[in-house]
């Protein structure tokens, strides 16, 4: 079965909290949770039901959760959004780290019908910066000393991916295969 994406539910709260408070994950995040608890995580997940500008998913290797994916700042008028993800399990990171971008872009451009993805990546997350460049995502620029975290300033790399540019790239997976991986993408 392979890579799958299921909408986050309150049952995922404890696992998400474990991942989100892991030093390996938080070092690349812009914010840290204040007074983290399973209860606050459940409340955050419950709040997502009323939002049209944010979607959250568990990344699964077959049926085993291995990471988190979100589509944020969804702007239907200007047809743009941002994305964020992390794969907690190292083996899954090695297995899916490169291909995850293909699923994300196809979901954004074909299911959400966006024209553009805009992402910001902190320089502490150097592997993601390299992956963005590998996938021919355009580096718009670098915001110098943009985030203060863990006692130091960090640069933020600003990337964009246009639908037209994405469609011109060679696709390694069929759109049907990608759509089938998302639990809320029922038809093309």
From TrEMBL:
Residue ranges annotated for the N-acetyltransferase domain, each copy included: 3-130
InterPro entries reported in the protein's UniProt record: Acyl_CoA_acyltransferase (IPR016181), GNAT_dom (IPR000182), PseH (IPR020036)
GO terms for MF: acyltransferase activity
Gene3D superfamilies associated with the record: 3.40.630.30
E.C. numbers: 2.3.1.202
Keywords, alphabetical: Acyltransferase, Transferase
Transmembrane segments: none
UniProt-listed PANTHER family: GNAT-FAMILY ACETYLTRANSFERASE, SPERMIDINE N(1)-ACETYLTRANSFERASE
Name the record gives this protein: UDP-4-amino-4, 6-dideoxy-N-acetyl-beta-L-altrosamine N-acetyltransferase
Gene (UniProt): pseH
């Amino acid at each position: 079965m392979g890579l799958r994406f299921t909408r986050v539910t309150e049952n995922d709260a404890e696992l998400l909290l474990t991942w989100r408070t892991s030093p390996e994950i938080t070092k690349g995040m812009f914010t840290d949770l204040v007074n983290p608890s399973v209860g606050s995580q459940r409340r955050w997940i419950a709040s997502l039901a009323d939002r049209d500008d944010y979607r959250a998913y568990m990344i699964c290797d077959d049926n085993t959760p291995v990471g988190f994916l979100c589509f944020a700042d969804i702007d239907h008028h200007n047809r743009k959004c941002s994305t964020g993800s992390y794969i907690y399990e190292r083996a899954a990171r090695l297995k899916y780290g490169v291909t995850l971008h293909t699923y994300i872009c196809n979901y954004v451009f074909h299911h959400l019908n966006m024209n553009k993805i805009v992402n910001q990546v902190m320089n502490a997350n150097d592997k993601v910066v390299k992956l963005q460049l590998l996938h021919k995502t355009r580096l718009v620029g670098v915001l110098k000393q943009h985030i203060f975290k863990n006692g130091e300033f960090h640069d933020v790399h600003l990337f964009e991916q246009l639908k037209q540019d994405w469609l011109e790239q060679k696709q390694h997976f069929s759109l049907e295969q990608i759509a089938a991986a998302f639990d809320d993408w029922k038809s093309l």
